[in-house]
Amino acid sequence: MAIKNLLVLTVLLSVLGVSVASSKGLNLNYYKHRCPDAEAIVRRVTVQYVSRQPSLAAALLRVYFHDCFVRGCDGSVLLKSQNKDAERDAIPNLSLRGYEVVDAAKSALEKKCPGVVSCADVLALVARDAVLVINGPWWPVPLGRRDGRISKKSEVNLPSPFAGIAALKKNFFDKGLNTKDLVVLSGAHTIGISNCGLINNRIYNFTGKGDFDPSMNPSYVRALKKRCKPTDFRTSVEMDPGSVKKFDSHYFNIVAQKKGLFTSDSTLLDDPETKRYIDTQVATAGSSFNKDFSESMVKLGFVEILTGNKGEIRRKCAFVN
Q1: Predicted confidence (pLDDT) per residue in 113-126, tens digit
Q2: Do residues 47 and 129 lie in contact, with contact meaning Cβ atoms separated by under 8 Å?
Q3: Can you give the pTM of this predicted structure?
Q4: Is 250 annotated as catalytic?
Q5: Which residue of 102, 121, 228, 284 lies most exposed, with the fewest beta carbons within 10 A?
Q6: Catalytic residue among 33, 66, 189, 250
């Protein structure tokens, strides 16, 4: 299995233009000698939680994405602050959930091999395994990240659901990700759930004149208005209606029909490259989506990582040592 995984990673990284030998200090066999059962332990805990509550797959994938986009994939989103000024206290992160899965996996690892596996690596593995539990794609997770010691609410600047294509592309480019990664990773919204509070303005008062966003399909707006009353900020809304429990390419069909829930979904039709990708996935029933998603997730896992002597290996993921 290790050889198979290494071959898969070699192919993926060669496609991405990164060699296995110099993959920024990460290695598929990083814990082979010091904690050989690390991946199996994380997988067991993740399966226990996500099999009971499948919606945790989307939640954990979101935690990982939010972590990597602020200070890189260093587990800083997991840190708590007595002053409520850590990343997890920022408004976009207040709805994050699934921390208990990461904590449980880390606790199990500490019993088996204390002080060895970083919380950043645990989160990377949990996100991958959670998606796998709901029959989503698998991707190799090179390991060796170290944990950051800094987590600031003021530094949280995530891609916004209200952003247009230019701002989104800049968000991704700033992290070393490209336009294809943007549209591919947006496909994770196939299992996403949001709430009425984030879309009410878009469907009831888009320009301040009691109108809705003209980029939206009117029939979709009518359906959303039935679910979301003007003063309702709490009711949940599926981001991929009819397919939210299945990790597939159906999200692109929804976007192509102008039924993207957020501006950040709809605006993918405003760029030639992202629109071409969407059209291709619709025309081919998502023939390359799983492969593309796996490749983009590998790239995401290398964003601004800490390795070597940088950072630390936290004993508990919510607190620095």
Answers
A1: 999 999 999 999 99
A2: yes
A3: 0.93
A4: no
A5: 284
A6: 66
